[in-house]
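Changelog note: in this version the structure field was regenerated for every chain. One regenerated record is shown below for reference.
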Amino acid sequence: MKRLLALLLAALFFLSEVALAAGGTFKEVVDPGLLGFTDTLNRDVSEITYGRINNYFTPKNTSNDVLRLGTLFPYLPEFEDYFRYAVWGPWHTDPRWDGTGGIKYDVLGHPRARYIGFGKYGESIGNVFYPPDYNGNNRPYPLENFISEPRKNKAVKDAFPQFFSNYQNYINGVYIKKGMPDDLKKRIRTGYYISASANGYDPYSIIEKTKAPAFEDPAPYVHIVLPPTNETMGSGLVFHKGRDGRIYYMSVPIPPEPLLLDGEDWIEITPKEQTGQTGTPVQFELKVRWERIENIQKLAGMFGLDFGFQVTLAHKTKSGSYPVDFKIDSLTASKLATKSYINLLPATLGGTLPPNGEKATTFTVTVQNAPTEVVAEIFPIWTVKGKKDLLSFFTVDPLYKTAKATVKPFMPDYAVQLTPSERTAKPGDEVNFNLTVSWKDHPAGQGFRVILAYQTPQGKLPVDFTLGGKTATKGRDVSYVSNMTNQLEGSLSGTVRVKAYDKTSTLIAQVIPLDRNGSPLPIQPPYDGDPKDNEAKAVVKPTGVDYAAVPFKEPVKLYIPYGVNNPSFRIIPHFERLDGIPVNVPYTITIRGAFGTVTKQGDNIPNHQSIGVPYPIVNPPLGTYQVTAEIWPVQKDLDVNPANNRTVITVIVEKAPPPEKGPVQRGIHVELGSK
């Protein structure tokens, strides 16, 4: 769509049969009493500035210039509304700034003024159709080089003071602080294409730069000297540094609405995936939809063209891309070597392509022995009016869309599950788990094997289990059950029994596919379509281990005696074991804070007893500190109540007042405990 806009604008600007209006030969209305119209304009400005600017348009500006209405295209009614403007004072070419002292003539010989008038505070309003001093010579439009926030750039303001005033920054300031409305962004993006064409740059290049910051968010880059309204064109400027190091500007018109950029289209294939036996057909639905293309159709019609869409379908396989049979209404797809297509044009649809429309159809493709892809596309196209032959289309365009779907042959999928995923028990007690294996799309005559192992402190061990009424065969360190079946899909259940140890143990279950001879196959496509669910784990934890850090009920206050240097203190956090399991459980104690870290390890703390661990505090500065004390089993996951394994102690260091009498006692040693 943007490339269409660029092509048509290029034709509009440069084809000799098109008569352009000069910047100095516009229609204008001078009316100091434009109060009713200015009220309308001001409401529009207030709306696009979040209510911040309410009285921009007045009969006269601050330089006493009279407000004037005009249009840059009086001879083209189709464009007149896009380039109608309200400015103050006459169009002009100010010799103080451009050095020419006059006007320039465009390629068709029409006189053009450099400026179409003045802004609210006396800024010159640039004429985008004034022949550029330095032609772009069809180079890419320099979006990525635009200077951000030019109103704050001294070099820019020194080079072009005619575009800046002490007050005009109100408009730009609103968008820098609050962001620019999406509709205004679209209008400025339209202005970029016009600016590129008028300044001799390649407008097509903008299509490749839609991720440039100045395209995604024009607010910091476009210096607005005239706000747009719903009735009139606005004007902005962009600045960039040229190859010679000098700063250049370009005018960017801001039309009252986004020129052509509001059309949209969609294409969809449903479902996104189909599976079937190799060699059999599967069916998809194809939908195409478009909205708001009337402006595109209108502009195309000005040049004797019809606008429409091309819809294509291709089946991409390992051996290449192939056309797909499909129909839309009464239209049958034409076939190329790699795809098929239907053109949706007025000439193919009985004379009319509605501005809003939707088409739906179905198609089938054949399942291959490996996954394949169906690709649908929708292109913007245009032809000579009333003709069916394609004139041009582009894939680098926002109206170019694709949709994809996958076709897969049936692929076996095996899954195993252990429930619950965790049990706790006293060491030596036995616990049960439920074992379930399921399969789908299973090849007839083949099978699968379920293998279980139990990882314990004594090593990997086989386990007792049953599955579907079969008892497991035990090996040296694993147990297994094999099952050969002709069922396409199904499931089997069983029970696993294991013993708890004094450390966490892990039960591991795995299912693997078997060939017709009962030999294992790799756990990967095409033997198993989803290897992620071929293994399951469950843990058995010993119950009752509960180490705890005894909390300090109040902050610890340390007083440095008067006259004592290098005092030393210590606090003694306590730790206890609260469970009743008669098993030694090694532990690690860590106390850390601003005064260092103390670590202690031990083999066991007797049940319902506690130990204290000193934490030294040497020569502390005055202040408040946090000390963290925690205890954990060496195997952390054995602790059944992690919430009480840690406590935080607040230590407050203060200076004691001087004694009322008596000598200073040196070498004081303070020892505090938590109990």
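Spot check on this record: Confidence is low (pLDDT under 50) at residues 10-30, 96-100, 664-670. The longest strand covers residues 305-317.
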